């Protein structure tokens, strides 16, 4: 199962971030890492559940977690 990085909206409260995480786990996801610099977390789940997470009102973006390289 792929891992996704979920970024919540900048004005999301801690309760709203928790609600987004609950939404992800309710869809069968497993929370991996919680980020401190951004309001977000990583979640692992089937790709067909991503669309429901993207529609959450507190979520700004959902991106596939992948390796980033610099030149």
Q: How do the strands and helices of this protein lay out in sequence?
A:
Blueprint: E1 3-8, H1 14-26, E2 30-35, E3 40-44, H2 50-54, E4 59-64
Antiparallel strand pairs: 1-3, 1-4, 2-3
Please tell me about this protein's structure.
The protein has a domain at about 15-60. About 25% of the residues lie in helices and about 30% in strands. The protein has 2 helices and 4 strands; from the N terminus they run βαββαβ. This is Peptidase inhibitor I9. It comes from Hypoxylon rubiginosum.
Report the span from N to C terminus. Answer: 29 Å
Broad shape: globular
For the largest beta-sheet, the strand count, sense and barrel status come to:
4 strands, antiparallel
User: DSSP helix count?
Assistant: 2
- What is the alpha-carbon Rg in Å? 12 Å
Overall structural class, as computed from helix and strand content, comes to alpha+beta
Beta-strand portion reads 25-35%
Read across the widest sheet, the strand sequence of neighbours is 2-3-1-4
What kind of oligomer do you see?
Answer: single chain
Low-pLDDT ranges: none
Count all strands and give the number: 4
The run of helices and strands is EHEEHE
The overall pLDDT, averaged over residues, is 88
Tell me the helix content: 25-40%
């Amino acid at each position: 199962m792929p891992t996704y990085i979920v970024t919540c909206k900048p004005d999301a409260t801690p309760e709203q971030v928790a609600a987004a995480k609950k939404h992800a786990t309710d869809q069968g996801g497993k929370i991996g890492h919680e980020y401190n610099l951004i309001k977000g977390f990583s979640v692992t789940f089937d790709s067909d559940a991503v669309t429901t997470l993207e529609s959450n009102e507190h979520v700004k973006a959902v991106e596939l977690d992948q390796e980033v390289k610099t030149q």
